[in-house]
Amino acid sequence: MNSNTTPRVARRMASPAVAPPGVPLPADDMHSSAFRYYTPPPKPLASSDRKRSKDAPPAALATDTVFRNIVTMTASHSGIGLSVTASMLAWTLAGRGLNCALVDADFVGGCLDLLLGVERESGLRFSQIDAPLGRIEGAALNHELLVWEDVRILPYDPWNARQPEWWEVQAAIRALAEANDVVIVDAGQGGLIETVPDLRRGVQVVAAELSVMGLARTKSHRSRLASWGCDAPTIVGIEPRGAPRGRGGVGIAEAEDYLIATVLGPIRPNVGLCGDVLEGLGIRSVVKGSRKAVTMLADEVEQAIRPPRTSSRPSEEW
């Protein structure tokens, strides 16, 4: 099912041995190599270096169009597995025959292409997005994106030190919503939601760490979303990583009692998945321990983005 033509193991790049300045490299070490698991992505196009206006174009302020296929995923704090959950959700929806796009809108801790092991693949990054009129053509944007497991990916590249303007983010999300069945937006801790109207109007999914502290943070995060006018979110529980066996965790039933809401899950940490990500191999499967929870979340999302049925039968007059 993997759409990448480059074998995953080939992403390990050999870097030559380096001698101290002024010291020649021994002849027998001339061809020695060491594995390097990270390579910077292709250099951005020249368009990313253009001088941009700080004023939002009038077209970006028009919010009369509502896209019901945008899924905004957030968490109360970083490092709990939100990006992995978003990626597995996108993969699952794509496996059901939906055209799916995954957007990295976490401009604090992004690098989604690095997480998925496709950082060396050619394709558009957020630093290359330029929407001076507040609009991007959806099919053209789709064509330029990375593809991972039949999912189109728009990652953020923080090493280019350029954060997109809010109207560029909105233009990209709207373009992808026009061209795909569903757009999954990894919005991190939700810093953009207050600014980008389409993220507020989207289907809300909140990842909650299943710990006492994690649930307290989730309750506060849910209140913040409500103050921004977001709908009530679907909550998915993620077990804390590194917790001692039998300690520190909170069950789904206890989480539901505390949050007074349905909590899907749990998403369970996986040592093999963690090792793959650290070695640059990316997510190679929806791990067995989390498959049920991801399937339930995909069911919720698919039901939420499905357009409401309208009766085609004329009403009978009596």
From TrEMBL:
Domain of life: Bacteria
UniProt xrefs under Gene3D superfamilies: P-loop containing nucleotide triphosphate hydrolases
InterPro entries associated with the record: P-loop_NTPase
SUPFAM superfamilies cross-referenced by the UniProt entry: P-loop containing nucleoside triphosphate hydrolases (SSF52540)
UniProt region (Disordered), positions on chain: 1-58
Protein name in the entry: Cobyric acid synthase
Lineage: Bacteria, Bacillati, Actinomycetota, Actinomycetes, Bifidobacteriales
